[in-house]
Sequence to fold (373 residues):
Amino acid sequence: MTLSINQERLAHYFTTLCEIDSPGKHEATLASYLQDFFDVFPGVTTVVDGSATITGSDTGNLIVTIPGTAPQKTPLFFNCHMDVIAPCLGVKVVRHDNVFTSQGDTVLGSDDKAGIAILMEMTQLLFENQLPHPPLEYLFTTAEEIGLLGAKAFDPTGLQATMGFALDSTGVDNVIIGAPAAVYVHAEILGRAAHAGLNPEEGISAISLAGRVISGLPVGRLDEHSTANIGLISGGTATNIIPSTVRLQGEIRSHSADLMRFHRAFFEKVFSDIIHPVPQATFSLEFPEQYPALALGSDTPLLAITQRAAVSLGRNLDYIVAGGGSDANIFNGKGLTTAILGIGMENVHSSHESISLASIIRTLELTTAISTS
Ligand SMILES: [Zn+2]
Fold:
């Protein structure tokens, strides 16, 4: 089947979305634009969930429900985040040779508005061409870039679909089927304050202890499946005061639950081996969860649906394991089988971000094939 994709309409949707300000926790303008857009399709409903009270955003997540015209097909969801990473206010889209960039003073926002534009145009195509499709749900989340807040606060109970796709990665024709779990490292080392010149004998320098701890901690790539980092350090009050307190913050990521346990235990051992022998020095060490792992087995029905679509397009897809965390990790943790599709965005999280119209179209063809084949 050859689709009559309206390229200029798609480009217009994309540009319009990018030029609507939607920093994290301020997605309400975009959400109401999307509600106005989707509400005009017959039978389509839009609902803003109650997550704003949890996330602190000026809107909840937006859920768009499109009734199936081939109800025997498996219901599917598609997810994009509405927020954009800073600097993202007053974006002016520049289109040159069908490649979109910002003017250079902001990000572009193709992360993740290219995905939203794809779903807008796909909906047009489904209706205009009366293509048979399963029940579809679009989950437009808030505050992804600042901690996956909307996804974390999302209640999947009312959702018809139990599997779907996040349109939110670089590259095209790739499917992310694995991403690591991540925990924060929150540590505090307590020594004892004393005047550095008058009575240094009474002080225990938390900074010196932290230095020894840090040099003993494994960081960087720990093994084939795991990484760790200490990214923030703070402590001390004045040059003439032996510092009593140091706070360390970092993270550990691993694709393997066993290795995650191992590395956490090793962190604890390093802290206790160094701090416990020092009289009156203490520490606290916690590992709050950032997000659970994404790990799809090759036999998951979602990948069969994906592969069927690829075959219908005559394409080979790359199935890859990535190193980052996104809404898809949270959805998988909530029991929603979620793969991530590359949408062609490049140099994301920078003012050099770009995307080509060709990449957006290529992903649109894939999502449409997924929804109709
Ligand atoms: Zn993103």
The radius of gyration is 24 Å. DSSP finds ten helices and 20 strands in the chain. The chain has two domains: 7-179+293-372, 181-291.
